[in-house]
Amino acid sequence: MRLKILSGGAAAQAVRGVQEAFERETGCGIDGTFSAVGEMRDQLLAGTECDLVILTATLIAQLVGSGHVVAGSARSLGLVHTGIAVRRGDAHPRVDTALALAKAFGEARAIYCPDTVKSTAGIHFRRVLGKLGLESALAARLREFPNGATAMKAMAECDEPGLLGCTQVTEINYTPGVELVGNLPPEFELATDYTVGVCTGSSQPALAEHFAQWLTGPQSRDVRRAGGFEFK
Prior knowledge:
D-Maltodextrin-Binding Protein, domain 2, 9-stranded mixed sheet
């Protein structure tokens, strides 16, 4: 007996943080797949077996409308901001204003980021570069990965100097070897509401609902807060 989860990468550690206790209590295992929210949505729509899906609130609402997520099952895990990262121990550039952020990007040898087509943070990062007038100038320096966690792991393992990362703060805070410099400046702020929903095709809807309660309840609150989730 196993629950299958398709989830945006920002929620990966929240799932893992309560997985062992849930499995011990219920005897039900958890199989989680974590990547860009657009990729996870596409897998669900393509028919991938899934009991719970964790995406942005907007995408969950769309999946309720299309009949893929049970109406009334959506629960928020919290808000996640997008931030700037460096490798642990590297100097922290200023990123608190548009001018400072543009300078930091311009001086970076490479910028690690999630998929700029299918991931929430990657799409937003590309828009920020456009607003700063840097999209063309920095195109060759972008190092894109399927999701932010993969991007941060790769940055942590790279020994080149002058690296920056841009992704959601949970993926920064949960990755050994990198550290958060700060959130994007207020004019570029992105706070994403990550939401879990029970899939209409679930073979174990009661267990799926039970785990959704764990993910959004006190069992995972400390794990979520430590990773950078903020609660409404």
